[in-house]
Amino acid sequence: MKKLIIAAVALMVSVAAYGQGQFIFNNRIGTEVNAKFQLDTDAGTTSSLAGNAYTVQVLGGKAGTPVSQLTPLGTTDFRTGNAAGYVNQISPIVPGVANGQNADIVLNIFKGATATGTPVKSFGPYTVTLTEAPAAPPNLQLGTSPLVVPTVPEPATLALGALGLGALLAIRRRK
Question: Are strands 21-22 and 37-39 parallel, antiparallel or unpaired?
Answer without folding.
Answer: unpaired
